[in-house]
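Sequence in, structure out.
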Amino acid sequence: MVVTVVTSPFLNSNNRLNCFSLSDQNIWSNHYEEVKKSNNINCNRSRVKGLTVAFLFSLAFSVVVCPCASAVSMWSMTYGGTESDIGTGDTFQTSGGGYIILGDTRSFGAGGSDFWLIKTDAIGNMLWNKTYGGTLDEVSGGMCLASDGGYAMAGYTKSFGAGGQDAWLAKTDATGNLLWNMTYGGTGNEYAYDVVQTLEGGYALSGQTNSFGAGSNDAWLIKTDAAGNMLWNMTYGGTGNDIPSWLVQSGDGGYAIIGWTNSFGAGSNDAWLIKTDAAGNMLWNMTYGGTGNDAAIHIIQSADGGYAFAGWAYSTNQDAFLVKTDANGNAQWNQTYGGTSTEMFYALLQTSDGGYVLTGNTGSFGAGSTDIWLVKTDELGVVPEGLTFGVMLLLSTVAVIVSMRYFRKRLNGKNW
């Protein structure tokens, strides 16, 4: 048998690798450098591609997702003409996601100041508006959504009633057409600041009176039937001016009333919270404020059983404020809002996302001397501008980091 031994040029007699010749080394070195160069080019291209995709992803996330979220959850709008238009009324979120706003207008209407009812979409664009009043002044207080889909609006009128100005309750249908109206008062001046529909289907109004009570002006609570006929009324206060503004009917059938007092408290005027039973008898009251004039205008009961109320404070150069309390009236947090001029909040509601919508007037922003101001906050009352920017920056950064980690893993998994 003939055995043929084939000797590899790369093996010596001990079957060990021979050293390459210089020319062989040059060939393999050049080949290696070409492969390495090609891999580096591909790697750099992948890195550039990864960075580009990450940037585009984060940009799209910021431009599309963040503004869409902030458009719904954080924004502000103004409404008005060349005269003074004020959001002294109330605001509610409607079933379609829009808002119904009650204010006062001197730019439009029948004469003097008129009630102004505005319907908007979910981002504050006006859909329709109606005015109510006579040739003299009508000034709005609060409003409630009635069980029939219409609106009950409270305030005062100088065009109708028995005295100089009387408390006024006006009832409309769902599209703002006036159905009936009632006045309440004596020979002095009365003002209804708020109205709620009661558990029995009637209405309760909070306001002030100087025809009745113990002092110059006393807090006044009126209970009516479904047609607006008065059933009973109660007054609260001391020897000074004690003015309630908004009220809510609490789960026990009683009422929580917010306003301000100079008969009690620490300053000239302090924010004043009153809790009553179902018959209007006072159970307890609390005051809030500094040495200046502090007025609480609107109150709601929050989902945790506490209360949130809004108003304005001369203690902070007349900025609008929002305060959150627990169920016993103890303050938990507060926020202030404003510019270089005067801002006031008159109305407040808690929205389905846990945040708040505040309505009032502003002298710092808008088209006229004073414009209606509608502001949407988060659940802690945080102002929109700073939070929106912060959220966008944070989410964009997270998007870049996640994208880069993804492409780095893909690059490391390559077999170069």
